[in-house]
Amino acid sequence: SGMSWSWGWASAGSSILAEFGTLHLEFLHLSELSGNPVFAEKASNPQPGLRVLNRVEKPQGLYPNFLSPVTGSWVQHHVSIGGLGDSFYEYLIKSWLMSDKKDSEAKKMYDDALEAIEKHLVKKSAGGLTYIAEWRGGILDHKMGHLACFSGGMIALGAEHAQEERRQRHRELAAEITSTCHESYTRSGGCCSPCCCSIRARLIPGVTLHSSEREETWSWVWNAADGGGWAAPHLWGLLRALILPQALEKHCRVEAGFSGIRDVYTTTPTHDNMQQSFFLAETLKYLYLLFSEDDVLSLEDWVFNTEAHPLPINHTDFKA
């Protein structure tokens, strides 16, 4: 019809923070494969979405989730590391890695963003669970979205390349977030995880298929720990028990595929009759990598995008 529209939650025609980072790695690689620099230029020069945000004033150093594509200003000050923001942060550290650690601007953006997150959003519950709260105009909302569980893996990945004074702190933070996300499974009675966790109340039931980001977290934390060392000991027991594949088989598998569950706290879960596309793109790939030998795809040579597609690290000048 030629008429533009947007989802109801994308108010005032806003662009979403995650959108600015989501195709960054892919566009850079597309230019390498095609020999056409236009894709990389759109992603990196001269005023790309990913980097223009480095120059926009940010409240407390945090990146709100909604930005006006017309004015370049934040539409509202809602900050979430989970849905609406997730892949923006993930692709900052991965852009640096994919460039063979030459993209210093992306690395600094990641370091600064994580510092602001640590300072303003990382909290600990009365029961000792570390979580990343949401932020609404200076007021903390003490809940952690399911999608934010990817951050354990991201922080573990970044910790391996952090300065010495940050490395151990970030390793511990990654393990603590992974532990909190693990609890969202165990407290549902070994079913799947809810979409949202209320830290001050109880876990809020929600529609979910599984955690695609969870598998990414487990994969990165496992790799960073190299089978032992600093990561939380419960993680290894969790992996050995195959809790996630068992839960998927028991509660989500139906005749034609895998269905979401409406309420993970019920004794007999009700299916929502939907198999999300990212289940195939993310969960199954990361589970495969998690239980494969470590050298299937070396992290010295490959970076995974958010859907677990491997992209090669650019060790040499592609044109040369």
UniProtKB/TrEMBL annotation:
| Enzyme Commission numbers on file | 3.2.1.-
User: What family is reported?
Assistant: Belongs to the glycosyl hydrolase 47 family.
The question of whether Calcium is a record keyword is answered with yes
Disulfide bridge partners, by residue number? 149-181
Q: Entry's SUPFAM superfamilies?
A: Seven-hairpin glycosidases
Enzyme class, spelled out: hydrolase
Output the Gene Ontology terms for molecular function.
Answer: calcium ion binding; mannosyl-oligosaccharide 1,2-alpha-mannosidase activity
Obligatory cofactor(s)? Ca(2+)
Which PANTHER family does this chain map to? Answer: MANNOSYL-OLIGOSACCHARIDE 1,2-ALPHA-MANNOSIDASE IC (PTHR11742:SF28), MANNOSYL-OLIGOSACCHARIDE ALPHA-1,2-MANNOSIDASE-RELATED (PTHR11742)
Q: Where does Ca(2+) bind?
A: 306
From the Swiss-Prot or TrEMBL record, give the protein name.
Answer: alpha-1,2-Mannosidase
Any one biological process term the GO annotation gives: carbohydrate metabolic process
What pathway does the UniProt record associate with this protein? Protein modification; protein glycosylation
This protein's record includes keyword Metal-binding: yes
List the record's Gene Ontology CC terms alphabetically. Answer: endoplasmic reticulum; extracellular exosome; Golgi membrane
One matching Pfam family: Glyco_hydro_47
Signal peptide range equals: 1-18
Query: Which keywords annotate this record?
Result: Calcium, Disulfide bond, Glycosidase, Hydrolase, Metal-binding, Signal
